[in-house]
Design goal:
By secondary structure, this protein is of the alpha/beta class. The protein contains five helices and twelve strands. The strands form three sheets. Strands 2-1-3-4-12-11-10 form a seven-stranded mixed sheet. A three-stranded mixed sheet has the order 5-6-9. It has a two-stranded antiparallel ribbon with strand order 7-8. The chain is globular, with a radius of gyration of 15 Å. The structure holds glutamine (GLN).
């Protein structure tokens, strides 16, 4: 794909920064606010924000099932933080709406109130060196992953970056740093 059109779910949360990152890398970014905006996109980013709100809006707008279908048909998707939560099959202690395409169990707000947010140099071998500057904000962790899920990075022994075929997910926010390696990695998944 010469110049993929990447949809960025723009219902709520940190979507502008994701759009800026993919634009900087030469892809086209399209803010997706309703079902029709998904026509013609090659990939989708689901940003951080509030996963319960985003899930409810996806249901109300009739977008949850069509988006799930597109992902199951192979469209690359990247979810960060709340986006990761929405991708997971299991959400601990919650029945909130979700896409459920990632074979994993997630614990929301896993670092607790004491450490609301923090930044760490994350060892992410897939991206090479130097370590990735990872910003965590009321971040989730994956407490269980299925056999098809590849763990790309861990914090305190728990997965915070994973890939399952066309699905990429991180607990942290690469869009809030100038380091574009993770977005580059995602564009590579789009065949670019
Ligand atoms: N705690 C939020 C949630 O559960 C996620 C936080 C974030 O996206 N920065 O949806």
């Amino acid at each position: 794909m010469v110049r993929p059109c990447v949809g960025v779910l723009a219902l709520q949360g940190a979507f502008r920064e994701h759009a800026a990152a993919v634009t900087r890398l030469g892809a086209e970014a399209r803010e997706v606010r309703q079902l029709g905006h998904m026509d013609g996109i090659d990939a989708m980013i689901i940003p951080g924000g509030e996963s319960t709100t985003m899930g409810k809006l996806l249901v109300e707008l009739g977008m949850l099932d069509p988006l799930r279908q597109r992902i199951e048909n192979g469209m690359p998707v990247y979810g960060s933080c709340a986006g990761l939560i929405l991708l997971c099959r299991e959400i601990e202690n919650s029945t909130q709406p979700r896409l459920g395409v990632l074979d994993a169990t997630v614990r929301r707000n896993a670092f607790g109130r004491q450490v609301d947010s923090f930044e760490t140099e994350l060892d992410l071998p897939e991206l090479g060196l130097p370590p990735f500057p990872a910003v965590f904000i009321r971040a989730p962790v994956l407490t269980g992953v299925g056999s098809r899920v590849r763990v790309l990075a861990e914090v305190r022994g728990q997965a915070v970056a994973v890939r399952q075929d066309n699905v990429l997910a991180t607990s942290f926010h690469p869009e809030l740093t100038p380091d574009t390696r993770l977005h580059r990695y995602f564009l590579d998944m789009c065949g670019n």
